[in-house]
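Posted in: Protein Modeling Q&A

I'm a second-year student putting together a small comparison for a lab meeting, and my supervisor asked me to include a predicted structure for DAGKc domain-containing protein. I've never done this before, so apologies if this is the wrong subforum. The sequence is pasted below exactly as I got it from our records. If anyone can share the structure token output, I'd also love a short note on what stands out.
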Amino acid sequence: MRVLPFAPANPAPAPAQRRVMIIANPAAGSLKQRRLNRTLLGLEKLGCTVGLRETAKPGDATLMAREAALAGNVDVVVAAGGDGTINEVANGLAGSGVALGVIPLGTANVLAIEAGIPRDPGKAAQVIATGVLRKLYLGEVRASAETPLAGPRRFVMMAGAGFDAHVVDTVDLALKRKTGKLAYVWCTVQRAFSYDFPLCAVDIDTPDGRTIHADVATAVVCNGKYYGGPFIAAPLADISHPTFQVILLKSPGLRHVARYALALAMGRLPRLPDVEIIEATRVRIALQGAQPLQADGDTVAHMPVDIVMAAEPVSLIVPAPAA
Ligand SMILES: Nc1ncnc2c1ncn2[C@@H]1O[C@H](COP(=O)(O)OP(=O)(O)OP(=O)(O)O)[C@@H](O)[C@H]1O
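Accepted answer (user: helix_wrangler)
Welcome! Here is the predicted structure, written out as tokens:
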């Protein structure tokens, strides 16, 4: 298996000839066959050998990525879809040394925005064929006695508890397919009227060895800066740094949901007086009842949860720096 070197050790590896396996999610928000085909042709023109597999159901992308990595005949496994597809592929590749590529064909495409991966099919192909590697540290949701998981479930961009997770858990998927991000806006407004805002009990281990406790309406454990699209929520987060930035939205209730949403859209969320952002190495969250935890836009576990950094980063292919 040829393992591509990390940047900056080799910031401009020789282009092309990469052996690429694309895993495409036909249910992802903006997956259009034409755009996928253009990317595929672009890769072949650039000298890559390309295989394509389509998922039939949630979970397939993880199994397909693991299979491709174990077979030992690919350099890059590409997630063609949104953040949920990337999450699944990253889970399958973790610890394998095979690089992760992205063709952004989802609804929000938060990781692509974070890493500067273009949406244009030709440019996305160029990145996969000639890009450099960047360390992508993953968060890991650990099983608890109450909520056993099949195995460690990793996440790429963020994990959220409280109102945030309630919205993701209850969003109307048919509406999401039709209207994209608007489905989340609609669901947020609707749920804010009926949700009773139980507080999340959050224990945060900081890099300097302290444990901070907070009871908050919503907690979002961020691995990257962006949230929900091109909105910066945690300015100090860095996918290549093995700590989290935990956003604590302290005030419960409809009025505060509206305030937080507006502040997020205006890039002012971190400046609100009832918002705190804390750097963390580990986060434990408990909430009354079996409330959900969302990670990268899908419900992945139920409370209580224990969140740590996964031991090994994945190698993400990102655009080569301009010469
Ligand atoms: N063939 C399939 N049929 C139905 N769902 C699938 C299939 N393959 C994967 N999935 C699920 O589709 C969900 C949504 O995919 P994904 O997140 O990639 O797209 P998105 O939600 O439109 O994009 P984003 O997360 O960027 O907003 C994921 O949870 C994934 O598990």
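A couple of things worth pointing out for your meeting: The first strand starts at residue 19 and ends at 24. The CA atoms of residues 200 and 287 lie 5 Å apart.
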